[in-house]
Amino acid sequence: MAGETILTIVGNLTADPELRTTGTGTQVCGFTIASTPRVWNRQANQYEDGQSLFMRCSAWRDLAWHCAQSLSKGMRVVATGRLSQRSYQAQDGTNRTVVEMTVDEIGPSLRYATAQVTKQGGHDGYQGGSTFGNPNGQSPQQQQPQQTTPPPASDPWANGGSGYTPDTFTTDTGDPEF
Question: Which helix (DSSP H) or strand (DSSP E) does residue 109 occupy?
């Protein structure tokens, strides 16, 4: 949607992600990312921490389940998503406003760590985490697998790249090959 505020935040999870299910059966995972800028103080000759930002985040559907399975408290992550603001009335009667991020993509920060990635199946080739083009969060329609024919014996890549094939560019038919 045009006009949305897109944000990328790098920080540490303040607690383990909490996976919940809505009344309609949609999974949502909630967590908070703490991001603290560090600034070099020339007079003190050392780094100093700036003011911390605590961003409340939510991930939906498959991404929610992946977050709950993969992320844990203290893990450094890189998250991209859309900011939203909402107002509500607290139990004490005061009006409050919160800014939250709906996560579209998230992963571990590899600056100070390593990660082992496991691809999850069942997405019909779709690898994105966003539902921009698919707001219902459903998988694209199944496509029929195409019939493939085995490569010809003269194909140099059919047997691992070994074998000789004659130069096919020496015969000029007058027509381009594209």
Answer: none
Residue 126: CA atoms inside 13 Å, Cβ hemisphere, count?
Answer: 19
Q: Which two tokens stand for residue 29?
A: 């995972």
For residue 161, is it left (φ>0), alpha (ψ between -120 and 50) or beta? left
Output phi, psi for 78, to 5 deg: -120, 120
CA–CA separation, 176 vs 178, rounded Å?
6
Question: For the chain, what is the largest distance between any 2 Cα atoms, rounded to a whole number of angstroms?
Answer: 86
In the 8-state DSSP scheme, what is residue 162? -
Return the number of other C-beta atoms located less than 10 Å from residue 106's C-beta: 23
pTM: 0.64
Tokens, residue 5: 């505020």
Q: pLDDT by residue (tens digit) across 114-151?
A: 888 888 765 554 455 555 444 455 544 444 455 556 65
What φ, ψ does residue 59 adopt, rounded to 5°? -120, 145
Which position has the token pair 């992600």?
17
Query: Closest Cα partner for 83 from 178, 5, 135?
Result: 5
Cite the beta strand spans of the chain per DSSP E: 5-13, 18-21, 27-35, 38-41, 46-49, 53-60, 76-89, 95-108
**Both tokens of residue 37?**
């800028």
